[in-house]
Amino acid sequence: MLVRFRRIALELAGVVALASIATAVAVAVATTAPWWLVAALPGALFVGHFVHLMRSGPTRNGAERIAVPVIGAAAIVVAGLTAGWPAAAVAAVPIASWFGYDRWITRQHRPTGVIEVGQPLPEFPLDTPEGYSVTSAVLADGPHVILFIRGNWCPFCMAQVREVAAQYRELERRGVRVAFVSPQSAEDTVELAGRFDVPMAFYVDRAGRAAELLDLTQRGGRSIAVADRAPDAEDDGDTVVPTVVITDADGRVAWVHHSTDHRVRPEPSTFLEVIDREGIAVAR
């Protein structure tokens, strides 16, 4: 039940924010009380913050995460002092929804360490976009940056893919290959691969089998508005914890990063720093 609610929580929070804006504006117009418009500000902040995240992709700092509650709290106080407690209540509802999104919906499962630094990359099943079954052995032939992403529907993942593609030449110069693994359908994976004119590899984690073996499954992490088009997978809303693994020439794990917040991802410059620091680069 909790997982099912998590899947609709974001849409529900958005509806609440829009409803608070509409209520504040309607009351302000109906009663000719302009101070009621202040009560619409927290809802507008919530919606604006989410639109900003959708456009900008991964966040690198918490500035906007501090600004939303601070400005929202100020708006609640002003609304209460000028228009009364009903206006303050209307203003407070979207901020409460924002805290639910920020503190609960974005939080990720913490993997137990199946992928360990210094150990060989664990074996797990994969499919190529063409439908051929392979294993993680395809990622053991030389150093790799392996990124487990949620899918095309995730704006943070797509921004991350674009950032890696932009830095691909620097990775190639170091002899490091790039591979993306996603539980989304082969059809969506083919579409994603076609967006980039660089030789990055894309694999399908059919029915989330690899994520389960690696303890990377995020229960209920996919919004109910996002349909799972994989034909043999139950639409349970599970996805993958955004994860980056860097392996050396022998296929051993040199660095691993699990996102604790699905909005926060390491920059490609971090990958280059790890590769240079660990001496992973190979002659081309």
Written overview of the protein:
The chain has a 5-stranded mixed beta sheet. It has helices spanning 2-31, 41-56, 63-83, 85-105, 155-166, 168-173, 186-193, 209-213, 268-277, and strands at 125-127, 133-135, 144-148, 177-182, 201-204, 217-218, 239-240, 243-247, 253-258. The radius of gyration is 22 Å and the shape is elongated. Helix 1 (2-31) crosses helix 2 (41-56) and helix 1 packs antiparallel against helix 4. Helices cover 45% and strands 13% of the residues. It is an alpha/beta fold and 284 residues long.
What is the count of helical runs? 9
> What is the end-to-end distance?
53 Å
Fraction of residues in β-strands: 5-15%
Structural class: alpha/beta
> What is the helix fraction of residues, given as a range?
40-55%
User: What is the tally of beta strands?
Assistant: 9
Write a compact overview of the structure shown.
Helix content is 45%, strand content 13%.
List the helices and strands and how they pair.
Layout: H1 2-31, H2 41-56, H3 63-83, H4 85-105, E1 125-127, E2 133-135, E3 144-148, H5 155-166, H6 168-173, E4 177-182, H7 186-193, E5 201-204, H8 209-213, E6 217-218, E7 239-240, E8 243-247, E9 253-258, H9 268-277
Which labels suit this protein?
284 residues, two-stranded antiparallel ribbon, 9 helices, 45% helix, elongated
